[in-house]
Every structure is written in C-alpha cells, then in structure tokens.
Amino acid sequence: MATFQEKQQLISHPEKVQSLYPGHTFEKLVSNNRLHSYKHLRTPRSGKVVAYWLIGILIIAIGSLFLPWQQNIRANGFVTALLPEERPQRVNAIIDGYIEHWYVQEGQYVRKGDPIVRIGEIKDKYFDPKTLERLVEQVEAKRQAAYFIKEKIHAIDQTIVALKEGLKWSLDKAKNKLEQAQYKVRIDSAEVVAAQTDYDVAKERFARYQALYEKGLLSLTDFESRKLKLQEALAKVTAAQNKLLASRNELMNARIEISSIEADYQAKIAKAIAEKDEATYNYNDALGSIAKLENEKSNIEIRNQFYIIRAPQSGLIVKAAKTGIGETIKQGEPVATIMPEKHTLAVELYVSANDVPLISRGRKVRLQFDGWPALQFSGWPRVAIGTFGGVVKVIDFVNSKDGKYRVLVTEDPEDEKWPHQLRIGSGVLGWAMLDEVTLGFELWRQFNGFPPSLSSPPEDDFEIKAAEKEKK
C-alpha cells in the first residue's frame, strides 16, 4: 500500500503513477481504493452534468429571447351567421289565439310558406263564423243607400236649376207687367192733364157765359147747359185722377210682385240647397261607413290568414316555444324557432374596449372551435394544430351590454376551410393576429402591463372613408 506521502504525490502529480505502480492507471488505482481520499477531493460527475444542463438551458433561454413572436388579442365568442336573415329566427304569432293543431315537429325541415301551427280565435268579436259575410251584406246595403242619396242629390240639383229658370221667367213676366203698369200710368197721367185742360177751358167759358147771363144776353137754359158741361168736365178730371191713382197702385203692385217673386223663389232655392247639403252630408257619411266597413272586412280577411302560422323561410324547426293543444298564445309571442336552410357561417368575438382600437377590417384571426382538439401557440400560429383561419369582416361602433365590442369574423379563403359540422351557437376561442416582435420584447411588455403595439395605426373602415368622400 502506498504511504501518505506517495498518495499526495500521486494526487498532485498523476503522471507519476507509472513510475510508482507499473501497469496501473490513475483511474484503476482510484477504483481499487488505493487512492480512497481522491474520491472525496475531486468534483462529482453529477454536478458537472447539472452545470452543463444549466448552461445549455441559459443559452437556449437567451437565444429564445430573439425568436419572432406574433402579438395577438385573445377573445371568446360563438359561431353565428353572417347575414341577419340567415340567423335563427323566432316565428311569432300575429294575433292572439289558442293552439289547435301542430303541422310540424322539432327537427323537421320546412319550406317557405309551409304551415307550422294553426291557432283558434279567443276574441268574442270574431266568434261568429259568418262575420265576413255579414260585413259584405252591410257594405252592399250601404252602397245602395249611398247610390239613392246620390240620385237624390242629382234630383235636387235639377230642382235648383228648374227653380232658377222659373225665377228668371217669373221675373221677366213681372217686369213686363211692371212696364205695362208704367205705360198705363203715363197714359192716365196724360188723360188727367187733358181732362184738367178741358175743365179749365170749360171753367173760363162758364165764367163768360155767366157774365152774359147776368147781363141778360143769355137765356137761363143756355146758362144751365153751359153749367152742366162744366160739371161734366170736372167729373172727367175726377175720373181721370181716379184712373191715374188706380194705375199707380197697379205699378206699385207690379213692383211688390217682383220682390215677392224673388223672395219666394230664393226661399225655395235656399230650401233645395239645404236639402242638397243634408243629402251630401248623408252621402259622405255613407261613404265613410262604407270605407270603415271595407277596412274592417279587409282586416278580417287578413286576420283569417293569420290563423295558420307559416314558415317565413326554408329551414329546420329547432325548438317549439309553445307545446300542447289548447295552450293560449298572445300577439307577438314566439311559437317556434327556425334555423334557415342557407347560411354563411361567421364567428362573433367580443373584444375589450382596450384592445378593439388595434383591430381593423381584414385582420387575420386564428380560431379554435369547441369540439375540435387543437394545439395552439398564440405567438407561433404556423405551428398551431387544429385551428382555423379567419378574417375580420365587421367591427361594431357601439359596445354591447358587458362593455365589449362585437367583431364578426368570416372564413379566410387562403386558409383551411372551416368544418362543415359546425353548428350555430358553438363556442369559439379566437386570437386576432397583430405585428411580429421578438419574444424578449413580448415578455418585457407583459411584465410591464403594456398593451400590444402596432407598427402603423389601423386603417379606418371603408364606410367611414366613403362617407367622408361624399361630404367632400
């Protein structure tokens, strides 16, 4: 066995092993316990391995900081249809009623216009099955009444025309009579003047004859004869004056008769006009009643069509909102839900207000659908498995109830097609892809709580650009 000094020399100078122990190596001497203390002085092998591993991991970690990392915005959502008319819609009852008969069952395919359910009437106003027929009869009766009233108005118009013509002829007749009376007054006036002249002449003669009689130059018989002629002349004057007075009275009566004729005919015409106005009012009232009845008739005809609720478009009956027979349903209440046959799938993602300014139309999105196993590396979308591509189609300008903004995503034509087994309402997890940065920058951003960064601001939607262009 080697002495303590020899072992120290071997430990400090391993190259002397061959001189002291020919045919033995340093490792063989250690394994044969001839250098037992050396085992406790040298570095353990496991420590070197751990050190190598730590150094390797550190190098890899430092190197990975320079790897590319694509920033993204994570959001949850669900599958929907792109167009509003292609989304599941509720079929509502237009009128109140109760369910009489179901024509379909859940899961059944229906075409547009196919009956879904028939409802019965619950309003007493429409209980009578002959309500429509009775309304038709009322409309016809009102039309007949309106026809007769219209004929009456026509007859009154003719009466008014006749009265106006009668007034014209009666006035012409009365005016002729007035002219005759005027002519007669002129003639009688001339006769009075003539009689007065004769009386004046007779009076002068009588005065001369009286003077002759007083002188005895004229006999009493001749004097009395001349006196009698004077009285006759005076009588003629009186008769002419009376005749003139009668002619004047006739003239006054002719004038009064004209006024009386005008007043009489005006009263008759006014009465006829009043009757016409009343008939016109009744005619308009009849027309209003006809219009009201026609409106009610049309409403009942349309209401009769609402007793059978039909499919607004082709699709599948998803769920019946009302069940059984005899169950009442109110106006506007849903009867069933229908899933349209043709629909373009889209995804509704809800993004926080903090992230929505970073998203623009056309931005790429990675999607993970519920039910499809996937392995997603958000920063390395190229190595993702089981995810599908999408493109941002619509970004709402108004937030939803929970304060997030809805983003509609459609299928990316440059990526793998979405599964045809997708159903509307399925859950979706999405990543809106932003710019590429280094992994070190991303970790620094996450540690400091900074939002993602973009190399350039997102472009405005083309609707806003078009509106600004129109304003210019």
Give structural notes:
- This protein has 472 residues and is α+β, with helices and mostly antiparallel strands.
- Among the domains are: 65 residues, OB fold (Dihydrolipoamide Acetyltransferase, E2P) (Beta Barrel); 171 residues, Helix Hairpins (Orthogonal Bundle).
- The protein is built from nine helices and 14 strands.
- The strands form three sheets. It has a six-stranded antiparallel barrel.
Describe the structure in brief.
By secondary structure, the protein is of the alpha+beta class. It is built from nine helices and 14 strands.
Structural class by secondary-structure content: alpha+beta
> What integer value in Å does the Rg equal?
63 Å
What is the topology, as strand order, of the major beta sheet? 1-10-13-12-11-14
Beta-strand level of the residues, as a percent range? 15-25%
Query: Given the C-alpha coordinates, what overall shape results?
Result: rod-shaped
In terms of quaternary structure, the protein is: single chain
Terminal CA distance: 106 Å
Residue windows where pLDDT falls under 50 for at least 5 positions: none
CATH class of one domain: Mainly Alpha
Which percent bin holds the helix content?
40-55%
CATH-defined fold name of one domain: Helix Hairpins
